[in-house]
Amino acid sequence: MISIKPHFRSLINPSYQRIISTSSSSSKTFFKSHKTEHKHEEAIINLCKQSQLPEAVQLLNNITHPSQSIYSNLLNLCLQQKAIEPTKRVHLHAKSVNYSLGVSSYNRIIDIYCKCGSLVDARKVFDEMPERDLCSWNVLVSGYAKAGRINDARHLFDEMPERDNFSWTAIISGYVRHGFPNEGLQLCRVMLRDCNVKCNKFTICSALAASAATQCLSIGKEIHGHIVRTGMDSDAVVWSALSDMYGKCGSLDEARHIFDKTSDKDVVTWTAMIDRYFKHGRKEEGFLLFSKLLKSGNKPNEFTFAGILNECALDNLESLGKQVHGYMTRIGFNESSFAASALIHMYCRCGNIEVADRVFKWIPKPDLASWTSLINGYAQNGQPEEALKLFESLLESGIKPDHITFVGVLSACTHSGLVDKGIEYFYSIKHKHGLVYTVDHYACVIDLLSRSGRFSEAEDIITKMPMKPDKFLWASVLAGCKIHGNLDLAERAAEALFKIEPENAATYVTLSNIYATAGKWADVARIRNLMDVNKVVKKPGRSWTEIKRKVYTFLMGDTSNPRLNEIHELLEDLQKRIKENGYIPKTDYVLHDVEDEQKEQNLSYHSEKLAIAFAILVTPPGSLIKVFKNLRTCVDCHTFIKYVSKVVSRKIIVRDSSRFHCFEDGRCSCNDYW
Ligand code: ZN
Ligand code: ZN
User: Fold this and answer.
1) In terms of pLDDT, which residue wins out, 392 or 213?
2) Residues 97 and 23 reside in one and the same domain
3) How many domains does the chain contain in total?
């Protein structure tokens, strides 16, 4: 009578085993069989309570006169476990004993099929149902919408005899989530004008999401009015969706206004508002709000930290980043989260590779982003050998590198002049690691070859590239041509660059320098003229340094720094002292910046020199100096800083647009190769 396999029994709890043993000895009389069925029913319900679905379904075989409660218990459990096969068996059983399941059981079955992704089964049940209620329609519409079968959802939605909040929310958010926000917005309009619809917070949120996704501020404002009128403005979820809508529509001040009025803000709301400021470049306000968050008693989460740290990384705000780090340590954070990799990234970008390395070692299982940040950090901070060593350990760890990792690896090879090794790595990207080449990989390998003067190999790779070379690639070629005096290729590279970005002064300056070195003065004049014709304006050089949490920015010829006289005196004094040590101003690079450089001979200096002199003045002797520059540093400044590091006994780190230079005792970590 009981067809349970022996091994199944051991899975079943003892109370059930007792039932089996009593029932197996039962007699055949009708009365007794009814009694045993009752016991089976009890057993099924008990098993359901203990979430033992397969065993409970198995017992259904013994039931011929089921009750509604068996089915509801079983279906509830099926829904909980998203179990499609047991659901089918329950449904079949009801059919086999001619039991008519109620509407709510049918709805549940449809719901299970939808949640398991079996929409065909769901539809079949829906079509077979003897009668349906609003919920039956809603469940299927929502099932279609969530699965992205938005047309099917809409068909069904249009056929609905009546609709409620749930129906509208399902269809609108389906449209928004699957990339049809305009259709969603259209329905919002219909819904808002339909007096029969009483919006609840979910409908309102889906409508707000539609206007946010379409950046339709007018509907957004209409919904805002609706919220106020219907008194929904006490709900934090609605407020946060409203603030999000204003933020996405670009009305940041409105978003902030809503944010300020939200009474019980959680950390998600705070983080969203802070990120909105960053996204729109309003950094100051973002940082201010972050410090407000710290004071509010809310605990920032990993998303908050990562957002702030990335911003610090972008602007090289190391001391703020350090403060955040300190705070994270105090309140504790998940060391294997992306907040940890954001920390590493921040320290690397700020040139503090030692601390980056320490954080990395402290993470029990660093993720690929952390590895990649550190590899890139070492490559850019003048320790390419460390970068390559780290890459080898990454391979040993079993984590697969991605295309960004290889950008770090290739630039490490470039910075250390390991050309053959670099080529080997380049080919391994595709052949050993099965990754697809990106335009960045090509730019890196061309940089590597051009710097070492291996132009024919470079050209060979360029012609075989599947995509169009970008400006970075051509700029590398041009820079290589400058080092090795390859006029022919330089002209072609410049030609390509003039097409991609005719407004970039650097191309004109580099090309005219190459002509000047070759003594081709007519061409120098032609390029100068071309610059005028194309109205090319040179990007002004800008350097900055952070001292005691304040950033000081220097531009050539800018007289706003109150200590400018002292700075100039110091620079003159330094110039005298380093000349005694063998420094010769690089006059052959005067053409790097014709007019500007002449000024330098007299009273003005390139911005990095001003920043360094200022830092020497205001920081204690022997302490580290760190300067950032928006352009590539010139040869003369590079030589100058090398000498200065020696005569003032300071370690000076300069990050220009191409890499970090670490000057110490008369040498630079780039080995004059940048
Ligand atoms: Zn310079
Ligand atoms: Zn250097």
Assistant:
1) 392
2) yes
3) 3
For position 457, what pLDDT does the model report?
95
Question: Counting beta carbons within 10 angstroms of the beta carbon of residue 523, is it exposed (0 to 12), middle (13 to 18) or buried (19 or more)?
Answer: middle
Q: Is the distance from CB of 51 to CB of 80 less than 8 angstroms?
A: yes
pLDDT tens sequence across 271-282: 999 999 999 889
Question: Do 96 and 162 fall into the same domain?
Answer: no
Tell me, yes or no, whether 492 lies in a domain.
no
Say whether pLDDT at 213 is over 90. Answer: no
Q: Is residue 531 part of a domain?
A: no
Cβ-contact 47, 55 below 8 angstroms: yes
Ligand nearest to the CA of 654: 2
Considering the domain architecture, whether residues 566 and 657 belong to the same structural domain is answered as: yes
Claim to verify: residue 10 and residue 100 sit in the same structural domain: yes
104/218 same-domain check? no
* Ligand 2 centroid distance, CA of 382 (Å): 9
Q: Is beta strand 652-655 parallel, antiparallel or unpaired with respect to 625-629?
A: parallel
User: In the predicted model, what is the mean pLDDT of the chain?
Assistant: 86
Q: What is the pLDDT of residue 5?
A: 38
The model carries a pTM of 0.68
Ligand nearest to the CA of 637: 1
Q: How far is the CA of 130 from the centre of ligand 2 (A)?
A: 81
Residues 126 and 168 in one domain: no
326 vs 192: CA distance, rounded Å: 49
Identity of residue 553: T
